[in-house]
Amino acid sequence: MIRVEGVSKTFAGGFQALKSVDLEIRRGEIFALLGPNGAGKTTLISVICGLVNASAGRVLVDGHDNVLDYRAARQMIGLVPQELTNEAFTTVWDTVSFSRGLFGKPKDPGHIEKVLRSLTLWEKRRNRQLELSGGMKRRVLIAKALAHEPQVLFLDEPTAGVDVELRREMWEVVRGLRDQGVTIILTTHYIEEAEEMADRIGVIRRGEIVLVEEKGALMRQLGSKELTLHLHEPLDAVPESLAGHALALVDDGHALVYSYDAASQEDGSTISGLLADLEAVGLRVKDLHTRQSSLEDIFVSLVRERA
């Protein structure tokens, strides 16, 4: 649906925000773009949407060059910006309807009603936006982006400042749009949001895409697991015969922690060997539990490795 080819962006002051970015986003997927502050997320979105001119490279939206065929490319896209930019004295109905008209679409009250109802805004349709809460104002931004029936929706930090309940409701709305065939590109600081929703994950750092991967594959490839073994009797040190297992003694000697690569140890043979060796030296285990690394752990590790 979107193809970014060798896109770079250098601003007038000499700062290079994007460095030869190549990226493909598939039709109908939810793609999460992660990166620390200043990594280039918003600049990349702005270039794709045609709001910022690239210094080099090109962007195709469903085959339309977003410079040479700007109108066709831009009509495919809905953008929910990071900042609240609503018109304070305009009613919800009027501002969403106006956004549809900006793209040359004929009036369609039925579609506007459908969008407002899907975002729980129908009862607020006659309210001026200054009367709305911050969460409701952000929903209005999404409604405006959907007013012209785009095939691609960019969500730049869509749930910033939104409470947990409202955030989860908005996740359901986004999933519903994906089920209708809309391609979703999401930037977020809430890593759990990407973990919950995304089909694929991209990581950008200092203007460069450092990784693009299926979420499940990323978790398997870069994730790690920890097995914590709680002992009946505390130890002063790890027995020498267990040195090959790289165990760490924690909790004042009451527990052993074994870290391993989740992908390479799926058959459990190493853990079986560890338990057999524990039994051989007479260590009794009263409880054990495992912990799988989260997407946040993986993201922090990736950014640190490339620092």
TrEMBL record:
It comes from the Bacteria. Coiled coil: none annotated. Residues 2-231 form the ABC transporter domain. The keyword Thylakoid does not apply. SUPFAM superfamilies: P-loop containing nucleoside triphosphate hydrolases. GO terms for molecular function: ATP binding; ATP hydrolysis activity. Keywords: ATP-binding, Nucleotide-binding, Transport. PANTHER family: ABC TRANSPORTER ATP-BINDING PROTEIN. This is Multidrug ABC transporter ATP-binding protein.
